[in-house]
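dude i think i finally got it to work??
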Amino acid sequence: MPCQVPSCTAEALLGSDEALLVYLTADEATWLWVLRRDDLAYYCIELGAKALADEVTALRASLDPALNPDRVPFPASRAYCGSLVHRMVASALPSHHFEGHRHVG
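look at this
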């Protein structure tokens, strides 16, 4: 089992232009913590475990040549506006948490 790291320790490891995203997914929702060297914030994303798994499964299927031999692209509208990026990252993008940060992990 991994050791727990206090947020102040993790913050000290981040560069001034870095942010760390940490997710916890439950049945009905996903929580996102945005950790910067100087701040910590969290958000509730209304995307539960099953819905997230369905989106990830669809994305993986589009990338797997055995499942997608014609290489039909994954719909960009689904990836960016529909669920994955928009719901999993964009919920924190409008905030000050990414201002001046070039590296997000």
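Residues 33 and 42 are 4 Å apart (CA to CA).
im so relieved honestly
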